[in-house]
Amino acid sequence: MKSSILYSLFFLQYVAAASDKPLKPCTIISPTNRFFDLNPIRRMPLKDGEKKAKGDSDGSWHAKGYDYGANFTLNFCGPVVEELHDVQDLDKNLWRNVSAFYEDGKKVYAIGLENTEPVFRGRKLILNYTGGSLCPSPKSKRDAPTILPREIIPSDPDDEDDKPSKKKPSGDKDKDKEDKTARRKTTVISLLCDSEPLAKTSVSFVAAVDSCTYFFEGRSPYACGGVHSAQQALSPGGVFGVIALIAILVYLAGGCVYQRTVMHQRGWRQLPNYAMWAGIWRFGADMFIILTSSCARFMPSRRGYSRVSLGHENGRRGRRNEDENRLIDNLDEEWDD
């Protein structure tokens, strides 16, 4: 009984260790234990000499901007396929990591860099890109209201010292400047499940907040989730085999202990149900002997050797008869003399 418990604990620890393996990039397990893999909807550039598959679109995913005045290009869990140049407010070594961008005239604005870790906000599957081009300052917005400074009229000349200064300290200016430079364009993609039989992946633009944060909605069959195949280290047949092996070990161990301690058996007789297994072994041995002996008669080599041996024996018998006759004749002649 104790051995069965130990084997069961070992099996559970093995399965738990297999389930703790790190996930691949662009995969996630939901709070409801469903597995999501977004790698199939990631567009990859064609290799040298590789032809485009039938039904595949050129380049990355595209979303129409409608009233925003620009169309968007993005990819899932990876940089865009297109080769970018002169991306605004980004170092040249980061151009190849841009996962979403749009063009305004001849200028290219990045709205997020590559990210391979989707997250869950409740039950919403979210893919977030950060670190794009700089967000525009509030002064450059068309709808930003212009607020004039209010003039303070002192009621007493002695209160002039209490008049607040309109000039800001240099430290505050530097701080405001840092805050403006720290704000960069970001992208938020909300992925929804599309379980239609002929459904295809699509991306649509939802809104832009302050020309700094862009919201998209993606629909795809790959956003429906499934069973994590890597979590199950053994197949159903393997699980059944492990259970059967544990049962056999428990049967042998328990039977040997019982036969040795209670029945005081020694040697092979310690095995549980020794008489039954011995009878099965003898039956199998007898059947093997019967089959091999019956098949041996049909072997040509055995038949040939038997013929040679029979012929040799007949020759020896003939020579014996001649010798006997010759001896009898000699005895008859001596008797006559």
Q: Could you name the key traits of this structure?
A:
5 helices, four-stranded antiparallel β-sheet, alpha+beta, membrane, 337 residues, five-stranded mixed β-sheet, glycoprotein, transmembrane helix, disulfide bond, Cation-dependent Mannose-6-phosphate Receptor, Chain A
Give an overview of the whole structure:
There is one protein chain. This protein is of the alpha+beta class and 337 residues long. The protein has 2 domains: 20-46 and 57-144 and 176-231, Cation-dependent Mannose-6-phosphate Receptor, Chain A (Distorted Sandwich); 236-300, no CATH class. Helices cover 35% and strands 16% of the residues. The chain has helices at residues 2-19, 170-182, 236-261, 274-296, 300-336; strands spanning 27-29, 35-37, 61-63, 72-74, 100-104, 107-110, 119-121, 124-129, 186-193, 202-209, 213-220. It has a 5-stranded mixed beta sheet with strand order 7-8-9-11-10, with no helix packed on it. A hairpin with an 8-residue loop joins strand 3 and strand 4 (72-74). Helix 1 packs antiparallel against helix 3 (236-261). The radius of gyration is 46 Å and the shape is elongated. Residues 15-19, 141-150, 159-166 and 302-310 have low confidence and may be disordered.
